[in-house]
Amino acid sequence: MYVIIVGAGKVGYHLSKLLLSQGHEVMLIEKEKAKVAALMQELGDSIMPGDGSTMEALTEAGANRADAIVAATGHDEDNLVICQLSKMMFFGPRTIARVNNPRNEETFWSLGIDATVSATRLINALIQEQVKAPDLLIPLLTIRGGNVEIVQTYISPASQVINKKIKELVLPKGTLFISIIRGEEVIIPRGDTEFREDDQVIALVKKVHEEVLRKILSGPSPGQANPREIGGN
Q: Which pTM value belongs to this model?
């Protein structure tokens, strides 16, 4: 896989190192020449000077054959321009943007950026995860223009899915369970997989169906409708 990363700050640098260690081809673009010179000995041909928000730099980096372009600068406006330019001029690569201010995520989604990563949102998710509140559905990552999210929650004691198989559930359309963490075990869910109390569940769900999925996994509050009656709409 060939990945272009724009911005040689801590995020861009460490992401480049990680991808290179995994055997991927990487090009890190950085407009500060002094920073490029300092990292050249370590990264060699995997770093180049240039303004990644220009077509010239992206073309020189080989954006036409890239599998993904990651905008990892410390400025949301620059990251948005990088991703938009990549979408308009090179078509093929997936665009992934670092979003420093979570309030800007909706703008990125509305303009067609494939995926956004917000450190603020992720840190908040980690804080909430420590609480392990069963009625929380924590967004971890938003993709596809903001219409789909990867979320995390816990199976509460009141949940109606305990000891039930996934294939027996009536789920919102498009919902996909990615993994179940049970103690020290990570389970790849299948149709015959049964839920247990305190399971940590990671799922892919459309944003409009988040509340329905939360009720299914956590159990409805007193006086609320049974989520099985509204699932799948």
A: 0.60
